[in-house]
Specification:
about 1000 residues; alpha+beta; two-stranded antiparallel sheet; 12 strands; about 55% helix; disordered N terminus; disordered C terminus
Length: about 1000
């Protein structure tokens, strides 16, 4: 009985409960921890499972049963966690990993604030934070830093007191985390930055005072030192990687520098005055001025190339003009970096940071520091800036006061009385002397020299652009240097405004633009685009173009040079048109983003001339004739857009195809507006075995597959639309009624591998229709591409290409700009003779052995064909009264001529769009029987063949005449294919008979 009671007690108290989510299960786990307080190799697996289950039960209890947390706190189970961590026995690290993971999961998933307060109440969490874990174990390090970051996400004005002890000035969560700021693992560094930002966001004055007084100075000082050390490593990587073999390492270094700057910007954007003041002071004194800015003027001091530096990089880094302003490589031991690296890093600074006190001082030092202050050190330089800033503020306040208003009026009167030449000289003087005795600005300007290459110019342009567009820099710092300046020449009227700009910088930019338009230049497209962006900002003020006439002439000349350069690549080959449209689509997607450009580490290396480096096309030199043509096309687009912007005009000639004028899928088309509309029935056989019955329509620009509209007679719905210029047509060797048609997608991006819009087999009712469709598609493709090439020729002002824009742009398609009114549609033809080959021909019905006559209306309409005999051309171009007579007798002739012979019919060549060799007609005579329409239509009366008019000889004579003129004469047999327009046409023919 005693043994039975013992087993009952063991089973009731120590047996595992069936429900894992219950208070009983937590009690069971507590007993397990109590019996296994010492970690060993034997019980470490049991402890790991116990800790994992405890976290699971606590998360369940947080949402379902508050008694779970009550029991957890009552038994002070966190003390077991501490006891386990402090042991150094075998397997303790293994258990610590699970313990940290359990704590991380627990704090991450708790939603009840009361439960959170219970967990933080006994200060056990701070004891866990300060515990000396074995951080040589990567798993311990990862889970520990993740645990700290999770705790920081729970910080607010209420929970901050659980972590920061105001009486003892102790804040272990923050002080322990910042020790890992420069940890080798990237994820650890990111977690520390996230944690510090979460701490700074808490609005607690005593906590922020503790950070400012006890940790801000050493922490921000360490940040500046770490970034400086990182930059030295980046600079050495640029020196030794001229062959683009190890770009990954350089990319990692650049990405790390960007992370540092974004982290600094996040701190500054919190607008914590005390912290911002300390951080700005450390950045200016210990990093940005001594390392970044002073590297711009380091060429003034003696320097030599360090041993081991790649000579190819050294040659480029030390290259500019032969004068003393050329940027040079500095010895890393001297605490400086190369000029190009300094320009690149400063560009990133101004593109990312926007804290006004910081960027304002940096911009002023670069643009206005005098050479006399340069060698006196950073402190003197900043003192000089503060003095100038105070004087400027005082002068502005004095000018605003009424005391100095009279002197201001006198100054304005003097400006009014000076001559125009003096005004122009006054406007030019500030810009001419803008770089005089300013060492940092001189270095930036000297880097704009592109006589050999644009390696340094690209970074100088990025820096100037970044400063000009930084929102934290006021206009008084960059006005007249990077932005236009306007001054009022009359106090009585605000309309008399004098505009001026930095002429020296504009001339530097115009020189880069002019050199970029030369055939043998070594200026990349990205450099040209930034130059044009900066130029437009300098010379456009209040929406007006203030560019001087000599400078306008330079721009116009550069545009003409870009057109002349592109004319050398203008060819009739199809690849030029595809390349032209491809480059336009690629450029129109988005403009150049300078901030994204400065994220690319590849531009830090010498300009590459091969695509094997993986560098974007605009960021390297062209390789081969194809890429030279691409560069010429992009150059033309950039210069054209710049000239249009300066003149205030809108682009009206590009793109070559206006998408708004094209037929779209599911668009309803009225196919009964003209008697001569021709639809070719076909069956589309897809590769997956699916079949669809469609009608093929060929527009000026497009191939359209139409499905009849069941609701409206004579209407159809476009089910597939493709451009004729993008089709490929091949015949089927096994079946003369089939065509293999591939329709490529329109060019819309940078990709060259376009997935076909449609690739299928088209099955026609007979080989004649198949042959006619192939002919029309082939000629339609050729004509569409020819029209676009003519449009390009007009844009390039190639002689002999004058005239209006092609229908490719204006959208003179078959189904565009149509009125919905029925009366308007009757007077508008769907297909006209002047359109590209392959359009609908007159509908004719034929039977075996009977030849049909050409429609008289078609004869009059085709009278202007260039293949018509000269005497017919003269007859048709006679007096206008003949036209009226023809209009009156057209219906009568059409009905009476059906019973007469063909002796009175003129022997004119058939249009080329309907040409089919006579041999094919003879061979295909047996298939005419199969050409009977599949739907009910009213056949037209046929002319009876007589002996006096042998049809065969007549056709042979026509064929012989055409061969003598060098033109192949063909005949196309086309029938009405659609019942949904046949009824309407038969009704109209009946009306004509009644009229006769």
């Amino acid at each position: 009985m005693k043994m039975f009671r013992s087993r009952s007690w063991f089973g009731g108290g120590w047996g595992r409960p069936k429900n894992p989510h219950s208070l009983e299960h937590l009690k069971y786990l507590y007993n397990v921890l109590s019996r296994n307080q010492t970690v060993s190799e034997h019980n470490r697996e049991l402890l790991v499972e116990t800790l994992r289950s405890i976290a699971e039960i606590l998360i369940w209890g947080d949402q379902n049963d508050s008694s779970v947390f009550d029991f957890f706190l009552e038994k002070n189970m966190l003390s077991f966690f501490l006891r386990i961590m402090r042991q150094r026995s075998g397997g303790s690290n293994y258990v610590c990993v699970q313990l940290l993971q359990t704590l991380n999961i627990l704090f991450e998933n708790i939603r009840n604030e009361t439960s959170l307060y219970y967990l933080l109440s006994n200060n056990h969490v701070n004891s866990i934070i300060v515990h000396k874990f074995d951080f040589s174990n990567e798993e311990v390090m990862a889970y520990y830093i993740s645990f700290l970051k999770t705790l920081s996400l729970k910080l607010n004005a209420h929970t901050i007191h659980f972590f920061y002890n105001e009486h003892t000035n102790d804040f272990p969560l923050y002080t322990e985390a910042i020790k890992f700021f420069n940890h080798p693992e990237t994820m650890v560094r990111i977690a520390v930055r996230t944690l510090t930002l979460n701490v700074y966001k808490v609005d607690d004055s005593s906590m922020l005072a503790f950070i400012r007084d006890r940790t801000a100075a050493p922490y921000f000082s360490n940040i500046a030192w770490f970034i400086g050390k990182h930059i030295q490593e980046l600079d050495m990587c640029v020196r030794n990687e001229a062959d683009h073999h190890s770009q990954n390492r350089l990319a990692d270094l650049v990405a790390e520098h960007l992370d540092h700057l974004h982290y600094i910007n996040d701190i500054l954007c919190l607008n914590i005055t005390d912290l911002n003041h300390v951080l700005t002071d450390h950045l200016l004194h210990k990093l940005l001025i001594p390392l970044y800015i002073y590297s711009l003027a380091s060429h003034r001091r003696k320097s030599s190339l360090p041993e081991g530096v790649n000579q190819a990089v050294a040659k480029i880094l030390t290259k500019t003009s032969s004068g003393p302003d050329s940027p040079r490589v500095q010895d890393p031991l001297s605490g400086r970096v190369s000029c190009v690296v300094a320009l690149f890093l400063l560009s990133q600074v101004f593109l990312i940071l926007s804290h006004s006190p910081l960027v304002q001082s940096l911009a002023w030092i670069i643009l206005k520091t005098d050479s006399t202050v340069l060698d006196k050190g950073v402190n003197t330089l900043l003192e000089h800036y503060e003095t100038e800033k105070k004087l400027l503020e005082d002068s502005l306040s004095d000018e605003a006061s009424a005391v100095n208003s009279s002197s201001k009026e006198a100054l304005l009167e003097d400006l009014i009385n000076i001559t125009d030449e003096e005004k122009e000289k006054l406007a030019k003087n500030p810009s001419e002397n803008v770089a005089m005795h300013k060492p940092f600005l001189e270095t930036v300007y000297s880097a704009l020299d592109c006589s050999e290459n644009d390696y340094g110019a690209l970074f100088a342009l990025c820096l100037l652009y970044a400063m000009a567009n930084n929102k934290g820099i006021t206009s008084d710092v960059i006005e007249q240097v990077l932005k236009p300046k306007k001054s009022f020449m009359s106090k009585s009227s605000s309309k008399d405004i004098k505009y001026s700009y930095n002429v020296y910088l504009v001339e530097k930019l115009l020189l880069i633009i002019s050199l970029a338009c030369q055939p043998t230049c070594r200026i990349r497209l990205v450099t040209l685009e930034i130059s044009l962006k900066l130029l437009l900002q300098l010379v456009i003020c209040d929406g007006k173009n203030i560019l001087l006439e000599p400078h306008r002439a330079v721009i116009e000349t550069a545009k003409s040079q870009s057109m002349a350069l592109l004319r050398n690549f203008y060819k009739s080959e199809e690849i030029f048109l595809d390349m032209f449209e491809h480059e336009y689509c690629d450029m129109s997607k988005s403009s150049l983003n300078v901030e994204w450009l400065c994220m690319d580490s590849a531009i830090l290396l010498p300009p590459a001339g091969t695509p094997l480096t993986g560098i974007d096309f605009i960021k390297r030199l062209p390789c081969g004739e194809s890429e030279k043509a691409r560069r010429a096309i992009r150059l033309f687009f950039l210069m054209r857009n710049t000239v249009l912007t300066l003149s205030g005009e809108i682009e009206t000639q590009l793109p070559l195809t206006n998408p708004q004028s094209c037929v779209q899928i599911e668009q309803a088309l009225d196919l009964s507006i003209s008697h001569n509309s021709d639809l070719i029935a076909c069956t589309v056989l897809y590769k997956d075995g699916m079949k669809m019955r469609r009608f093929l329509v060929i527009d000026v620009l497009q191939l359209i597959l139409v499905e009849p509209d069941n609701k409206r007679l004579g209407w159809g719905v476009a089910k597939l639309v493709g451009f004729l210029q993008d089709i490929e047509v091949t015949g089927d060797k096994d079946d003369s009624r089939c065509l293999h048609i591939t329709i490529h997608r329109p060019i819309s991006g940078a990709t060259t591998n376009r997935v076909p819009l449609l690739s299928a087999k088209f099955l026609f009712d007979d080989n004649i229709r198949c042959m006619a469709a192939k002919q029309r598609l082939t000629k339609g493709r050729m004509k569409a591409r020819q029209k676009k090439m003519q449009h390009i020729a007009r844009l390039l002002e190639i002689p002999g290409q004058s005239g209006p824009p092609s229908p490719a742009f204006t959208g003179q398609g078959l189904y565009t700009c149509r009125a919905t009114g029925r009366n308007l549609r009757e007077n508008r033809q769907l297909f006209t003779a002047g359109r590209a080959p392959g359009f609908a021909a007159p509908k004719r019905e034929s039977s075996p052995g009977v030849l049909h006559r050409a429609d008289e209306s078609r004869r009059h309409r085709d009278g202007d064909s260039p293949h018509r005999l000269s005497n017919l051309r003269k007859e048709l171009s006679a007096s206008p009264s003949n036209n009226n007579v023809k209009k009156e007798t057209r219906s009568r002739e059409a009905s009476s001529s059906r019973t007469k012979s063909r002796e009175g019919s003129p022997k004119m060549p058939r249009p080329r769009s309907e040409e089919i060799p006579l041999e094919l007609i003879k061979k295909a005579s047996h298939s005419i029987i199969d050409m009977a329409p599949k739907i009910n239509i009213l056949p037209r009366p046929q002319s009876v063949k007589t002996e006096s008019e042998p049809c065969t000889s007549g056709l042979i004579n026509d064929n012989a005449q055409s061969k003598e003129s060098g033109v192949l004469k063909e005949a196309t047999i086309i029938s009405e294919e659609t019942s949904f327009i046949g009824d309407r046409q038969s009704d109209k023919r009946g009306e004509e008979r009644e009229a006769v």
